[in-house]
């Protein structure tokens, strides 16, 4: 298993394998790997000859007030786990994908929350990338300025409370695709909106990459695997089980004939709040367009984001009647 840090070296490595006729699968991650990530890697191996895993905590998808500084990281442990799989051919773990002048990784360092003004005068959140550039008075124009927006799909669900998140995700994934040049990329469907946004970006911009969505991996008690789970106290973790339970109850109700989405959402919200969670959103949306539904008339997904303590968890469940 090769560990590659520089984009140019990663691109050269991939091209050597492609010239030899080998197909490449990419599994993008932000590290602190768990069984959910390892399941993506196993799926990747069945889709291509060569498997590449990227490890990069992307500051472009965090606003300065979010949890970039506390996002869990264990790169040595991640590399050990990946080597033990015996199916990963390369790990791409760049120090900074936005540092174009190698400025000591300042762009990856978050600081206090701040806002700036959009052209129309409205307050607009900025990412850690832009804040770092403003702190450094980047007058020479060398900082990162280009962002990819999937405009409609990014607006609802997580996009409401995290306005910079999906442009940061789309941008860094596009960068990874250009660097690794994979034939296939695997994304977990726990981040359902993210998966759909990447699918649309690939379609709209004609990336020669097949996107595969992998099903959610859960703990035996039903909690969706997440790198943030380690930040839950034992009591908070027990309360967080209400998310999956509420989704299962809503799915059962829908399959039993309850197709009124407002009533189904209310049941989800009630179960989570009674357990002590704080709802960010609970929505029932069309699986393709992510538009909110009033009644279930087509395949939908029930999406939830909720806080337990200072940890924000997301989960979802597809429903096809």
UniProtKB/TrEMBL annotation:
GO terms for molecular function: ATP binding; pantoate-beta-alanine ligase activity. It catalyses: (R)-pantoate + beta-alanine + ATP = (R)-pantothenate + AMP + diphosphate + H(+). InterPro entries: Cyt_trans-like, Pantoate_ligase, Pantoate_ligase_C, Rossmann-like_a/b/a_fold. Its EC number is 6.3.2.1. CDD domains: PanC. Its main location: cytoplasm. GO terms for cellular component: cytosol. It is found in: Cytoplasm. GO terms for biological process: pantothenate biosynthetic process. HAMAP family: PanC. NCBIfam families: cyt_tran_rel. PANTHER family: CYTIDYLATE KINASE/PANTOATE-BETA-ALANINE LIGASE, PANTOATE--BETA-ALANINE LIGASE. This is Pantoate--beta-alanine ligase. It comes from Dioscorea zingiberensis. The lineage of its organism: Eukaryota, Viridiplantae, Streptophyta, Embryophyta, Tracheophyta.
